[in-house]
Target: Mitochondrial transcription termination factor 1
Amino acid sequence: MAPGNLWHMRNNFLFGSRCWMTRFSAENIFKSVSFRLFGVKCHNTDSEPLKNEDLLKNLLTMGVDIDMARKRQPGVFHRMITNEQDLKMFLLSKGASKEVIASIISRYPRAITRTPENLSKRWDLWRKIVTSDLEIVNI
Model:
C-alpha cells in the first residue's frame, strides 16, 4: 500500500504543479541558457600541420622551453608559417647569445610570427629610446 501512495504523491507533484511552473515567463527561464548550439570543437590529430613538427624540432634545438611557450601563447604552435630561424638570425646579429634567444622565445613566443621587416621596424623604435643593442636585448 505504501508504494501506491508514493506513486500517487509523485504523480501529483509532477502533474499538479503546472500552475507553479507557468508563473515564470519564457524570458526568465531561458535567460541563463546558453545558445551555442554548434560550439563543439573536434580535434583530429591527422589534420595537424606538419609544420608544427618542424617548429617543435627547431625550437627544441634552440633550447626553447616549449611548455612555458605553450602556456603563454598556445595559438603560435598552430600557425602554418613561423619565422623562428629569421628571429634567431636577427637576434644573433644584434649581439644576443643562444641562451638569451631561447629565453626570449620561451617568454614571448609570438615573436616567431614576426617578419624580419617587422622586427627591424620595432628595433628602430626601441633604438630611439635605448642607445645600444645589448640594452634592448637585455630588456
In short: The chain has a mean pLDDT of 75. Residues 49-138 form one domain. Residues 11 and 17 are 10 Å apart (CA to CA).
